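Re: beginner question about structure tokens

> Can someone show what the tokenized structure looks like for a real chain? I only ever see the sequence side.

Sure, here's an example I had lying around. Input first:
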Amino acid sequence: MSKVWFITGASKGFGREWTEAALERGDRVAATARRPETLDALVETYGDAVLPLQLDVTDRAADLAAVQRAAEHFGRLDVVVNNAGYGHFGMVEELTEDEFRAQIETNLFGATWVTQAALPILREQGSGHVVQVSSIGGISAFPTVGAYHASKWALEGLSQSLAQEVAGFGIHVTLVEPGGFSTDWSGPSATRSEEIAAYADVREAASKRPTANDPGDPRATRAAILAVVDAEQPPLRVFFGRVPLDIATKDYESRLETWRAWQPVALQAHGGDAAASA
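And the corresponding structure tokens:
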């Protein structure tokens, strides 16, 4: 059976690739973008199979209306992809309140509002799949993108809770965690704080980290995302790209080593018999 998708940020990057992947195989897509004219080529190519919608995901009322319109137009929703987002570059000390709030509003609240809008529809159907576009930056962290990490780590926790809450309704949740890809995430789509000179060396070192090199091919994620949404039991988390597993392995091994080394202090903090047996 063909699927009906709702994809935010469908004008470029992963959103555009996945929209085209779904349409090319005969699925139908409600595709959203801040500037709907960026979706004109999709309409010209795929006609009624695509429903173009103007949407700023930070507008909760607009999110609710867009999801409802998509469901009414196509008669159902099968896959809801929260892809809209961007990266903000700046040391923690460099962040302004407006920059930090804007990052959270888009990457976390936008995904939350769209998810909330879709859940009543998916619950009534007794089926559906919410795909949250996270990042290797949703489970690990690097200098210069603290605000971005904050938004994605929060999305990870929210979505893990969500997965447990909605499993009984036949709804799946997947966090897609890409590494570096040849998109404009760090280019025109990014925003940047005013730099503090004292961090010049940190910034230089950060530019050489593994995620900045050997980027993946966004087109290759087309087959990958279809495999995820077509799976009978899709994963809660899945990496996209070559680099993430190595980063995650080293990061989590380091965490476990530290936690184990400090376990006597943890037991001391517990008090009672646990502290005595430490």
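Each token stands for a local structural state, so reading them left to right follows the chain. Residues 244-278 form one domain.
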